[in-house]
Design a protein that fits this description.
The complex is a heterodimer of chains A (110) and B (118). Chain A is mostly beta strands and 110 residues long. Chain A is built from no helices and nine strands. In chain A, the strands form two sheets. In chain A, strands 1, 3, 4, 7, 8 and 9 form a six-stranded mixed sheet that branches. In chain A, strands 2-6-5 form a three-stranded antiparallel sheet, with no helix packed on it. Chain B has 118 residues and is an all-beta fold. Chain B contains no helices and eleven strands. In chain B, strands 2, 4, 5, 6, 9, 10 and 11 form a seven-stranded mixed sheet that branches. Classes of the chains: A mainly beta (110), B mainly beta (118).
């Protein structure tokens, strides 16, 4: 059972917007940065968002991140079929001294 | 260009050992944190541990699930990081990835599969 909680799945139509939530507590999200990763089937994770809301070079601005208190949210606008993947939030936990991942959210673009 | 390549995976019997390698290119491995992650078949990502960069003391931190069984080390002269896995259990079966830190992981290897089974 993951300490960071994500919905198992979300879905939306092409062109629409979707948000994925990630809930933690004061030891992780509440006091440390959040990163988001996209994992396409059979491939390594890819960094989408770091330090809560920063996009690495090459990541389109359709992807956005935010954090409030002990929760974080990944937003994806202008959905494309190529966005179908698993998405993971991640944060350091200061009490556990461990990197934590959410359980992952499978995005389906209908 | 930053590149990470894992190797050393395979089929191993429960209780045995295996050493994975993470060969880096495009940067000096000693200047960065180097983390290991794993992903069991059909499951989510799990952090295994990391070795800090030289300027941060080169110390290691491990997940509770592998503490005492797994050891991360680094050979700066070869630009390779290692994951020594001892007393392997069936639940250690997973794809193992290395990635460059600290804090967030922009560079990942392609992974190497470890299967623990008799």
């Amino acid at each position: 059972q993951s300490v960071l909680t994500q919905p198992p799945s979300v879905s939306a139509a092409p062109g629409q917007k979707v948000t994925i939530s990630c809930s933690g507590d004061s030891s992780n999200i509440g006091s440390n940065y959040v990163s988001w990763y996209q994992q396409l089937p059979g491939t390594a994770p890819k960094l989408l968002i770091h330090e809560n809301n920063k996009r690495p070079s090459g990541i389109p601005d359709r992807f956005s991140g935010s954090k409030s208190g002990t929760s974080a949210t990944l937003g994806i606008t202008g959905l494309q079929t190529g966005d179908e993947a698993d998405y993971y939030c991640e944060s350091w936990d200061s009490s556990l001294s461990a990197e934590l991942f959410g359980g992952g959210t499978k995005l389906t673009v209908l | 260009e930053v590149h990470l390549v894992e190797s050393g995976g395979g089929l191993v019997e429960p209780g045995r050992s295996l050493r994975l390698s993470c060969t880096a290119s495009g940067f000096n491995i000693g200047d960065y944190h180097l983390s290991w992650f794993r992903q069991a078949p059909g499951k989510g990502l799990e952090w295994v541990g990391f070795v800090r960069g030289k300027t941060s003391g080169g110390t290691t931190v491990y997940a509770a699930s592998v503490q005492g069984r797994f050891t991360i080390s680094r050979d700066d002269s070869k630009n390779i990081a290692y994951l020594q896995m001892n007393s392997l259990k069936p639940e250690d079966t997973a794809m193992y990835y290395c990635a460059r830190g600290p804090g967030f992981y922009a560079y990942w290897g392609q992974g190497t599969m470890v299967t623990v089974s008799s």
